[in-house]
Amino acid sequence: MGRRDIDESDFRSRPSKRGSRPRTKQRPEHSDAVTGLVTGVDRGRYTLLVDDDVTVTAMKARELTRTRVVVGDRVDVVGDTSGEEGSLARIVRIQERTSTLRRTADDTDPYERIVVANADQLVIVTALAQPEPRTGMIDRCVVAAYDAGMSVLLCLTKADLASPDHLRELYEPLGVEVVVTQRAASSDDYPGAVALTAESVEDVRDRLTGLVSVLVGHSGVGKSTLINALVPAAKRATGVVNDVTGRGRHTSTSAVALRLPVGVADAGAEGEARADGAGADGVGTDDGAGFDGWVIDTPGVRSFGLAHVEVAHLLHAFDDLDEVAQECPRGCTHLADAPDCALDDWIEASPEDERPARTARLASFRRLLSSRTGSDA
Ligand SMILES: Nc1nc2c(ncn2[C@@H]2O[C@H](COP(=O)(O)OP(=O)(O)OP(=O)(O)O)[C@@H](O)[C@H]2O)c(=O)[nH]1
Ligand SMILES: [Zn+2]
């Protein structure tokens, strides 16, 4: 996306009560602004990456007090952007978002929160065992991602403990991509240091390269283990359950964006390819290998309330079903008990060889639909 100067008033559907200051007066004031990417948020302090290699601490300008700035946002920033110790810059504008991943606290809560901005894909990290996978949770994540206009990667961990076949069967009909990871056989069981097979880590890296990915997952699924394998510098705490709270060690509940290093195997070649300055996504790294993509960890996000999701909007993520559903009676819920739902006719009318695939796809879609209102199974 080209840089387009936009300020928060562009997002308002109603004129702001406080919007007494004409934008034309405001503009020249910030003409020296530079663009930063928000990589972390901590109690009103924002960590930004400016010019792809300067880390800057900033706070919001007063006019943005009531505006939420989240990880992944591209912002215009003024003031001291040197990144020097103790320096503090000021965020004056949020650039237009390409996607917004939202959640509500629960399904009846009308108050929605933006979790991450501008992400391309949601990576749902689910263990095949320990803890047992919960399809209700996965479904809700899929719905939240599609609603946000993001694609979904289902990352099934601990394949050394159980088979991924069943979950593949459930999610592949939806067009959800699946990738599987497992611990290396050589991995000794010393605390906090499970090694994943290099092959599984590189499989995941392949799917993340060049993209902004948000990782979500329940405590204990191996998300931190995976992130550490992908981004060794991340040093996410793993395998520790707090004796007092019974929960994971992470005290921070806010998202953090980490740059994804290019794979080990092709690091040399990539490093050279980028020496021509084409690497807008992060040359100038410590080891010179470069980065290509972002991994956003969301320690605080364990599930998605979906009160904000509309059926019609969700349906847009499924071109074929969306087209068929145009024939539905007005107000059709498209659920299994909906009278005269055209999606049922679509199966009735299917050629024999397509029937099993269509049936599986519709069943999966209906499961997603009911997850909007059902409880987290
Ligand atoms: N058998 C097996 N164990 C794994 C695998 N990946 C991670 N583990 C173990 O699973 C436990 C949880 O892993 P973490 O990476 O800490 O899980 P997490 O999802 O980050 O959990 P929180 O830190 O609570 O958010 C640890 O004991 C890991 O060693 C795997 O592929 N196979
Ligand atoms: Zn219908």
TrEMBL record:
Keyword Heme assigned: no
One GO CC annotation: cytoplasm
Chief location category: cytoplasm
Region (Disordered): 1-31
Top EC group: hydrolase
Pfam families noted in UniProt: RsgA_GTPase
Binding site residues for Zn(2+): 328, 332, 334, 341
CDD domains: YjeQ_EngC
Cofactor dependency: Zn(2+)
Binding note for cofactor: Binds 1 zinc ion per subunit.
Composition bias, Basic and acidic residues: 1-13
This protein's record includes keyword Transit peptide: no
Compositional bias (Basic residues): 14-25
InterPro entries in UniProt: G_CP_dom, P-loop_NTPase, Ribosome_biogen_GTPase_RsgA, RsgA_GTPase_dom
Quaternary structure and partners: Monomer. Associates with 30S ribosomal subunit, binds 16S rRNA.
Family of this protein: Belongs to the TRAFAC class YlqF/YawG GTPase family. RsgA subfamily.
Protein name listed in UniProt: Small ribosomal subunit biogenesis GTPase RsgA
Gene it is expressed from: rsgA
